[in-house]
Amino acid sequence: MHKEFLMGNAAIARGALDAGLNLVCGYPGTPSTEVLETAAKFNDGSIYAEWSVNEKAALELGAGAAYCGARALVTMKQVGLNVASDPLMSLAYIGVKGGMVILVADDPGPISSQTEQDTRTFAAYSKLPCFDPTSVQEAYDMIADAFAFSEKYHTPVLFRPTTRVCHGYASVTVRDPEERLTNTPEGFVRDPAKWVIFPRLSYQAHKNIEARNVTLAAEFSAYPHNVFTPAADDSRKGIATQGISYTYVQEALAGKPAPALLKIATPFPFPEQLALEFLRSVDEVLCIEELDPVIERELTYLCGKHHLHVDIRGKLTHDVRNAGENTCASAAHDIAAFLGQAQPGADSPDAAQPALPVRPPVLCAGCPHRASFYAVKQAMKGKKAVFCGDIGCYTLGNAMPLDMVDTCLCMGAGVNITQGIGKIEPDTACFAFVGDSTFFASAITGAVNAVYNQANMTLVILDNSTTAMTGHQPHPGTGRTMMGEIVEKISIEAVLHGVGVKTVETVNPLHLNDAIETVKRVAAEDGVKAIIFKSPCAVLIKPDQPAVIDPEKCTNCKHCIRQLGCPGIVVQDGKVTVEQALCTGCGLCAQVCPFHAITAGGVN
Length: 604
What we know:
With 604 residues, this protein is α/β, with parallel strands linked by helices. The protein folds into four domains: 2-221, Thiamin diphosphate (ThDP)-binding fold, Pyr/PP domains (Rossmann fold); 227-338, Rossmann fold; 368-540, Rossmann fold (3-Layer(aba) Sandwich); 548-599, Alpha-Beta Plaits, CATH 3.30.70. It is built from 20 helices and 22 strands. A six-stranded parallel sheet has the order 3-2-4-5-7-6, with helices on both faces. α1 (8-18) crosses α2 and α9 packs across α11 (272-279). The radius of gyration is 27 Å and the shape is globular. The termini are far apart. Residues 343-347 have low confidence and may be disordered.
């Protein structure tokens, strides 16, 4: 064994590799993305790594590998589990042969997600075992345990790190290369009675799952990462916690007589016997957890089941806030109040702190999406129109001054929402914006639905040749795979023509006049039509010369700023100025300036 300084996601990947991983696949999504990337980086050629087109595809691929006896890791973020939930619920009944771990990174806050959903609750819903690491080291250690439990009980298991574990760094004790475990898959063995799901088999499978989870709950009570620490004083008070919140609790209690402490690393099936030992030692319990009151509900249930008179407090009793992530300050405040140590107004998580500057996320300087939105906005000026967005960098098109995203629900939804609006308001020009990666992930079916049901809409594909928002991962349109192979690019134009979209036009959005005229022409047609705005992500290209403002021509009207909101154009000392370090020379501002005062990228 030796020590390395690792990000949590890297530690999870290294732990999986050291446990004999055979296959890793997933769909990129913060805060999970680096797990698969790290596994691919340290791949010695013995494992298969893949960015799948979406989470459903990844889960089904992983299931096939696990059917063969392989150790398979499938990665996603919490909202990705919604996409994968269809195969997941059935796979819980079918089971697996090899170890299958489904890593679902939750995002309290949320910091970069649509929801704060809690995968621990999904674990209870799907009746699947769940592991919930508290630290980077524990994440490394527990991923191997997750594979072992999966193989022992022939079930997929959920592994639920949160953002602060995923993106935190720590010195981690890891295996030496020669200590790495290996796993040789047996291969797929035909057994239709096992691998083919039928209602009569599902009934028995359900009974087996319920019995298995009782056994697992007992085994989890002895699992080393579930810990009950008796009180260091005679207060008869206790704290139950999990995940990164456990480290916050430890910090808050440092140097003080500690109450009884219960750390839950396997929230489902709940370690009942260990929890009962804890409950019988206390009269009051404070539950500090993210996000749902999972531990709080379980302890309340156990008190009722075993007739224990223990006061359980937490989110349900409003002793702990019930939304957002916990922090060291919030944990310290809640614990002080629980232990009767709080001063009025002191240590409040909302206590006065220096005000931070407001820095809302914006499209990068030179981002082609800004030009795409602006072209559509200009083409539709004065017309009744609706602009449905999607998940990606281009969601930021909702911000002023572009103001071009009227709806955003989940990946691929904008294409279908557009159709729904159009059916109710046929006099509205309906646009759906979707990125190239998201198109492959979840919008193709929406395009098929639109053609089949004779919608009247314009599908706008924002093709920047990458999966930009999550770190520039490849997708089917890039011609590269996670294994480093060069493959045939899948043409978005060909796909659209193949599903029956007759009008498909491609234009560079940075050629503004051409883009505006294309939108006017295509949007005027009836039925389903598509525009592909094709221009690479600004991060992927070598920048051109930064824009230059001619002080003799510039009237300081700020039209460029008010129209585009590009962070590369700022006001300094009362004058419009180009931020040289940010400007890519894309030329959009030069085409917008009414006085031709800007030169950029050869455009004036």
